[in-house]
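Final report, Chapter 2: Outcomes

The project's central promise was a pipeline that accepts a single protein chain and returns its three-dimensional structure in a standardized token representation, suitable for archiving and comparison. That pipeline is now operational. To close this chapter, we reproduce one record exactly as it appears in the project archive, with the input sequence first and the structure output second.
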Amino acid sequence: MSGMAGLQRLPKAELHLHLEGSVTPELMGQLAPEASQEEIGRRFGFRDFAGFLECYKWVAEHLRGPEEYAMATRRLLASLAQQNVRYAEITLSAGVIIWRKQELAPIYDAVQREAAGSPVTVRWNLDAIRHFGAEHAMQVAELAAERVSDGVVSFGIGGDEVRGPAEWFAEVYKFASARGLRLTAHAGEIAGPESVWSALRLGAERIGHGIRAVDDPVLVRHLRDHNIPLEICISSNVATGAVESLRAHPVRRLYDAGVPIVLNTDDPGLFDTTLVREYDLAASEFGFSEEDLTRIVENGFRYAFARSAVPSAPL
């Protein structure tokens, strides 16, 4: 593997990737023809987590039905295929769809049809908005459970960690696990290590972000010793202000401490990134060697929730 070209050619997997967040400013020009380029640029020019949430919400409002969701899926899958991503677990914000009073079934059918025609093997994670509460999350878990045999592999919670504490969702996670869903959770992104501990107590098998685990040596050892991976998204954490700067990102410290990590884009359209670029950042900014990057690439396949569906995993 040599530089960007080598990274491009290497078969890869991505495990933390939001469909709605894959929408680029260029695609927004088609989804929102009434919006000027200046408005789109302003919306996508957020500088903190609150601004990111507003942009995400604005994008979701323009995914008005199955046709728009299908269009976003086609664009995303074309980009993944071009990067030689062989397997992707894509999060569909079912919680947002419910909140907007849209019908999930035709939207899910539309994105699943697009996935079926792609060279990328896709499995879906249905995500609830944690600050909307347990009843909302149970709705999402029930919808996910109905589709366990139709491409949905996992259930998770996203949104505001502080306003939606993990303790609310114990029964939801028990239900999801009993129905055959794998479990993940956004945690330790803008809240501290206790948020990660709380997600682990729910039964989360992978942690979305989890970067604040670095502040708790006991938690770092727990993640290492119990082989619990963090879904690391470098550009995302810089763009939302979850870290002060690129150089302040703890990815290297976590990796060197033995915590399993997987590199991801999170919201590539909103953060103007690609999976190849995330690997390039790891090399250029944090000194990850070719051997390190190969190990992290392998982790993408190793920690996939649908191991039997993973094609040509380079392990």
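Archive annotation: Residues 3-303 form a domain with the TIM Barrel fold (CATH 3.20.20.140).
This record, like all others produced under the grant, will remain available to the consortium after the project formally closes.
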